[in-house]
Design a protein that fits this description.
Helix 5 packs across helix 6. The protein has seven helices and eleven strands. The protein folds into two domains: about 120 residues, Thrombin, subunit H, CATH 2.40.10; about 130 residues, STAS domain (Transcription Regulator spoIIAA), CATH 3.30.750. The radius of gyration is 24 Å and the shape is elongated. By secondary structure, it is of the alpha+beta class. Helix content is about 35%, strand content about 30%. It has a six-stranded antiparallel barrel.
């Protein structure tokens, strides 16, 4: 009798875990998954994902309910997700419900990875498997050159790799039109969210271009958000962090900008 009670309790716990995982919408996706459990790496395939967890298909099934693990996978738009979780339920053999594998419940999902998953879910539920190059590029960044020695860049939201590539092209194109010598740079990253690794590489590329054969002085506007922290790190790696004065708010940044260029901070009139 005690054994029967233990089995029923285990089933109820597994069912509860599955119900909790399904409290958030699941979206189908196919991507390779690296699962790390007790220093052993298992390769599987991601089949669906939500903010609470994911289902991964794998054969043979070797882990049990309750096992803790770390999973890493890349979503179609270039987001590299790394999350800790536990196995909430196991499907030992494929059946009419799906492939053999694990239902994984995430825990302690940090802000960056949560935002990556959330953006993918919203995009997929809106009916788009990939960003539409038209509108999204125009609304997530803008680049202007208000004078022959000035460059202004405004960043918003989460830049996908396609968008970040277009941003790099836009910045480099305008840099070719600026005269040699000192240039003044105004980077507004107040509304920038966390970006995937592939996008950060494009941002690093144009930050590095800023220092080639030029003396740079400028401002970086933004608080202690994830996106701003990422840009500050990239600026250090590009070797221009000491040339960018950090401001938490726009008013102080504008005042400093006026003192170094002799005019009010420009207001962009359009998008690139």
């Amino acid at each position: 009798m005690l054994g029967h009670v233990a089995v029923d309790t285990s089933r109820r716990k597994a069912a509860a875990a599955g119900a909790e995982r399904r409290s958030e919408p699941r979206v189908a996706v196919q991507a390779a998954v690296d699962m790390h459990h007790e220093a052993v790496q298992h390769v599987a395939e991601l089949r669906d994902v939500s903010l609470n967890g994911a289902f991964v298909a794998v054969s043979p099934v070797t882990l049990s309910v309750g096992a803790g693990l770390r999973v890493e996978f890349t979503l179609p738009q270039g987001f590299r997700v790394s999350a800790f979780g536990r196995i909430a339920w196991v499907r030992q053999l494929p059946d009419d419900r799906g492939a053999a594998g694990y239902g994984i419940q995430f825990y302690g999902l940090d802000d960056i990875n949560r935002e990556f998953i959330q953006y993918y879910l919203e995009l997929a539920q809106a009916g788009g498997g990939a960003p539409i190059a038209g509108g999204r590029i125009e609304t997530r960044f803008e680049v202007t050159d208000p004078a022959d020695n000035q460059l202004r860049v405004r960043l918003t939201g989460t830049l996908l790799p396609l968008e970040a590539d277009s941003l790099e092209e836009a910045v480099c194109r305008k840099l070719t039109r600026l005269r040699r010598g000192q240039i003044f740079v105004y980077i507004d990253a107040r509304d920038l969210a966390a970006c995937p690794k592939a996008s950060l590489e494009h941002i690093r590329a144009w930050l590095e271009r800023l220092r080639f054969n030029r003396t740079v002085l400028g401002v970086l506007v933004g608080g202690n958000t994830i996106g701003v922290v990422q840009v500050r790190r990239l600026a250090r790696e590009a070797g221009i962090a000491d040339s960018l004065i950090m401001f938490d708010n726009r008013a102080e940044a504008d005042e400093f900008w006026q003192s170094i260029v002799g005019q009010s901070a420009p207001t962009p009139g359009g998008h690139s």
